[in-house]
Design a protein that fits this description.
By secondary structure, the protein is α+β, with helices and mostly antiparallel strands. The chain has helices spanning 2-8, 22-35, 58-65; strands at 14-19, 39-42, 71-76. The longest helix is centred in the middle third of the chain and has 14 residues, at 22-35.
Length: 81
Amino acid sequence: MVARLEQSLQPGGTLHFWTDVEEYFQSAAALLQQRTRLEGPLPVAERPADHDLDYRTHFERRTRLHQQPVYRAEFRRPPGA
């Protein structure tokens, strides 16, 4: 299943992975590292939303309002892969 994820990305494409569950984040990142050739996990800097709300998604807004962390990473398919 993870191989299909890698295949669905174009060379140079990026998978954005966000969750509020640290254990899920750690296990998914490890699985992607072990079973794919994707580069990552790469850190994701927080930046202002593209609209007038304070967060980018409803999920992130709800999580932050409850003062819970959001774990973020990106994985990239190498350009020549």
